[in-house]
């Protein structure tokens, strides 16, 4: 014991001594390293100019974009009058826009006298010339499971499902909850709802009972569609068990439709539960699409806010379809023969707009992957790209970082030569990940579109168009047609030219959400009460001298240090730019002198070990990149970070742990892996 004690003491002393001695050396070393890296990659602002071959392949060039953009703002009504025609209407619209944005009253209507059906826009209108074209390539979790669904087959399957739903008494305006993993029936049943005018409310298959019942009750949905089980990454997800548990608290649910995915035994409630295969057995494969008004609801999708329970974001039919289809075509530079893959889950808005409604409205071939990027191994996504010759690939920065962390070898095994364009969405992408995505995944030949948008916006609002806009890694670049961003300073004044503040949108666009389902006042309070006449996004943004937008993160994630704003995204990006760091999350904690200190959670790359020297290096590294103000106060090495199932880091929890308030963590039910939290609490650093 004595020996041990002594040795620890000695070690400490030695360490201290050595570290003081070594310090200047280390500093020098790091600073040289920092210098060259920063110079190469970050400090010198990177611009990737549109290349001649990108311009050649693009739908619009710079002149066309600028003209069309300025036209879309100046002659907004005329612009959308023309663009609305890309959709097939049953009764053409005469009215274009009827919008009122104020602090007390908000009304948003587009094409309000037109009628259409979303499912027939995604299917029927392609039957004339594309009936045998593949609409959906379904790629199973198991690489041997795969299925191609042509537009004609999709028509038949969706019609049967629609007739099945009708047989149960489901009609226009009814809310139908869908809780599934990524199986073809998810696409089929959502389009079947759209076909008969029922409003779908899709719940991501990773949510559990409490979230399911909350969402069902909020929109008073009487029907739910699920499957016996789901399969993801070689694991079984007990969907029906979760639904059974949820429905204990949902007395209004009349029917639970069950799709067979694994065929394993499940509990059965007679009278309530119905097999999907029985429902569609004897029904016709033709179903006349319901004529819907442009402003009839298409779907509800729940999204969490900074306060309160999740909000039911309501999207309507006409404007949403116009906007989803248009953005999909222009931003992804979509051409009729392209194979397009968005890796999102349909349970999120990205899947709604950019796996189903946008691509199918454009007659595209869209991939639906049931699995995850690392099953059977980390090469999976790149193998799928090679196998199906994917041309357009759209994913999230968090996925890119986790794949990047495993090293290049899994990517390099594949060719990915079919790729023409890459996209990202969901959070700011740090330049380090951008460059890796560009060089390693895209073989330095594909432009990247960093697309900024929200569940509420229905489609992409800020993003490059690759033939028209030079790329700057980390910037979502410029607004899409008809989008007028404003940046508002601390005093509520609009900033003209370069500057930083709160990001608002000053005029409506067709894909905008119309209300919070059942609570219009909450809609007004959340998005319109802050700045008169503007939609407030909840994000912060910078506009640079070239008019490029840089999203700095949620406004509530800003940390004020010594009276200065620091974006968590900016600091995290600096961390991740270090060669040993895989991921990081930064939160503020109360600091006697500075107001807030920076508590930084850091996950290292596989094979790296945390130690005091690395901690010191990282502090210097971040200080060097952003400035002394951003010097991290605390670095907490952690093997994982608490994330929602959609991959968003839950900073609320990290803030509580940093502040030593882990008895007040609040609702942790949406965490992907709750065990991460306990390990963080156990290893909390004292402040
Ligand atoms: C963030 C996802 C920076 C942003 C479509 C927004 C982004 C929130 C980007 C919406 C991006 C999304 N760069 N931040 N390219 N894309 N975000 O509702 O904070 O799940 O407000 O919609 O994600 O997330 P949501």
Description:
The chain is an alpha/beta fold and 687 residues long. The protein has 22 helices and 31 strands. The strands form 8 sheets. The protein has an 8-stranded mixed β-sheet, sandwiched between helices. It has a 7-stranded mixed β-sheet with strand order 5-4-17-16-18-19-20, sandwiched between helices. Strands 22-21-23-25-26 form a 5-stranded antiparallel β-sheet. Strand 16, helix 13 and strand 17 form a beta-alpha-beta unit. Helix 15 crosses helix 17 (431-441). The chain starts with a helix and ends in a 5-residue tail after the last helix. Residues 1-44 have low confidence and may be disordered. Residues 303, 349-350, 425-428, 450-455, 476, 537-539, 551, 554 line the site of 5'-O-[(S)-ethoxy(hydroxy)phosphoryl]adenosine.
Throw out a few tags for this protein.
687 residues; 35% helix; 22% strand; globular; binds 5'-O-[(S)-ethoxy(hydroxy)phosphoryl]adenosine
Fold blueprint:
Elements: H1 2-42, H2 52-57, H3 62-74, H4 76-83, E1 97-101, E2 106-110, E3 115-116, H5 118-122, H6 127-130, E4 134-139, E5 146-150, H7 151-167, E6 175-180, H8 184-196, E7 199-204, H9 209-218, E8 223-227, E9 230-232, E10 235-237, H10 239-247, E11 255-259, E12 273-275, H11 276-279, E13 292-293, E14 297-303, E15 311-316, H12 318-331, E16 339-342, H13 349-361, E17 365-369, H14 380-388, E18 392-395, H15 397-405, H16 409-412, E19 421-425, H17 431-441, E20 448-451, E21 485-488, E22 494-495, E23 499-505, E24 515-516, H18 520-527, E25 535-543, E26 549-554, E27 558-561, E28 564-567, H19 568-576, E29 581-591, E30 595-604, H20 612-626, E31 634-637, H21 651-658, H22 675-682
Parallel strand pairs: 4-17, 6-7, 6-8, 7-14, 8-11, 11-12, 16-17, 16-18, 18-19, 19-20, 30-31
Antiparallel strand pairs: 1-2, 3-13, 4-5, 9-10, 14-15, 15-24, 21-22, 21-23, 23-25, 25-26, 27-28, 29-30
